[in-house]
Design a protein that fits this description.
It contains one helix and eleven strands, in the order H-E-E-E-E-E-E-E-E-E-E-E. With about 220 residues, it is mainly beta.
């Protein structure tokens, strides 16, 4: 238990070192729902809603709606074809004026999971085709997530856990680096169908960054 807590603290300290790289940063919040419907042993339907705010108490930054149809190659390997709609409310320069930007997104992804002891590791590779107003863009994303049980109970019955991840975004155009996200949080597994996380994420670009408090609900049914 002590070793696991020390591992979490060291990882969070590592994340904080990334936060300090951002020249400009402000705190916002993301409210996230991630659902998964099992159709049968091979097929699943993914659905997701994210309500992102510029600050802790409101001021819409982005509304993201995403869905997809997945196929289990094996128990721990999933292919998914999906669609997303994203409404962004972007500030114009340093003014209080906003402009709305609509994006339709098609994406393909491969997810693979593994365990080292009780520690769960999740790799996700995603390729996106983005229709942003009149522009067409493509982007690759790689996500590495780690879930660490924090209670000494038998396998599969560790309700309290630490969640850590890093995700990098790469464009196919000249400016290849798009952004990077670093996250650390605590989660609680209420049942096999529901778990929730509260965490802190930094999203940084080349010269700026944003900090977000994330409240995430994962639902399987």
């Amino acid at each position: 238990m002590k070793f696991k807590i020390n591992t979490v603290l060291l990882t969070l300290a590592f994340c904080i070192s990334f936060f300090s790289l951002a020249q400009d940063s402000s705190l916002g919040n993301w409210l996230i729902y991630i659902g998964n419907k099992k159709v049968n042993d091979k097929w699943n339907i993914h659905h997701e809603v994210q309500y992102r705010n510029y600050n802790v108490i409101g001021d819409l930054e982005q509304l993201l709606l995403r869905t997809g149809l997945g196929y289990n190659i094996t128990e721990n390997n999933n292919l998914l074809l999906g669609y997303g709609y994203i409404l962004s409310e972007n500030y114009v320069g340093d003014t209080d004026d906003k402009v709305s930007v609509n994006e339709h997104r098609i994406f393909e992804q491969f997810t693979t999971k593994q365990k080292i002891g009780n520690v769960g590791i999740n790799h996700r590779y995603r390729f996106e085709q983005r229709f942003v107003e009149d522009d067409f863009k493509m982007r690759f994303r790689y996500f590495l997530g780690v879930n660490i049980p924090l209670q000494n109970k038998e396998e599969g019955k560790n309700p309290l856990y630490a969640s850590l991840y890093n995700e990098i975004f790469l464009n196919t155009e000249t400016s290849i680096f798009d952004r990077n996200r670093v996250y650390g949080g605590l989660g609680y597994k209420f049942s096999t169908s529901l778990r929730m996380e509260l965490g802190y994420m930094n999203q940084f670009f080349e010269t700026s960054g944003r900090d977000q408090i994330n409240l995430i609900a994962f639902v399987n049914f």
